[in-house]
Design brief:
Elements lengths: L2 H9 L3 H10 L10 E6 L2 E7 L4 E6 L2 H4 L1 H15 L4 E6 H25 L15
Parallel strand pairs: 3-4
Antiparallel strand pairs: 1-2, 2-3
Length: 131
C-alpha cells in the first residue's frame, strides 16, 4: 500500500477510530507512541506502536460476518506475526460503548510486551576494565 493511501485514510477515519485515537495520540497508554494508518508491506495498520510492535485494528461487522474477510484478516495477522507484530482486534462497538475497557486491554498488552522484553545490558564502561 502506498503512503498516499495511508494519508487519505488518516484524513477520513471512521468515528470509532477517531475516538480511540484520542486515547492513543498523546502517549497516554503506557507512555508508548502510536502511529495511525501506518503502512507495513502491503497492509495499512489502523494503529501501530513501533516501540512495542503492537498493531491495533478496529473492525466493523463485515470482518466477522464474511468468511472472505476472516481469511484476509488471518493472512494479514500471520504476515505481521511473522515480523514480531502482535495484533489486537476490537470491534467498532467495543470502542464506542467501552473505550475505557479497550484502552485497558491495550495497556495490558503493552505491559506484557514490556515485561517479556529482556532488559537492555548497560553500555560498556570506558577503558573496558572493572576496577
Amino acid at each position: 500500500m502506498s503512503i498516499q493511501r495511508a494519508r487519505v485514510l488518516r484524513n477520513d477515519m471512521p468515528e470509532p477510530e477517531r475516538v480511540l485515537w484520542q486515547c492513543l495520540r498523546v502517549r497516554s497508554i503506557g507512555g508508548k507512541k502510536f502511529r495511525r494508518q501506518h503502512p507495513i508491506g502491503d497492509y495499512i495498520l489502523d494503529f501501530y506502536s513501533p516501540g512495542t510492535a503492537i498493531n491495533i485494528e478496529i473492525d466493523g461487522d463485515s470482518h466477522f460476518e464474511s468468511p472472505i474477510a476472516e481469511r484476509r484478516d488471518a493472512k494479514r495477522d500471520a504476515y505481521l506475526s511473522a515480523r514480531g507484530i502482535r495484533t489486537l482486534r476490537f470491534t467498532n462497538r467495543d470502542v464506542m460503548e467501552n473505550v475505557e475497557g479497550v484502552c485497558e486491554a491495550i495497556a495490558r498488552a503493552i505491559r506484557e510486551r514490556d515485561s517479556a522484553s529482556p532488559p537492555l545490558a548497560p553500555p560498556p564502561r570506558p577503558g573496558g576494565g572493572g576496577g
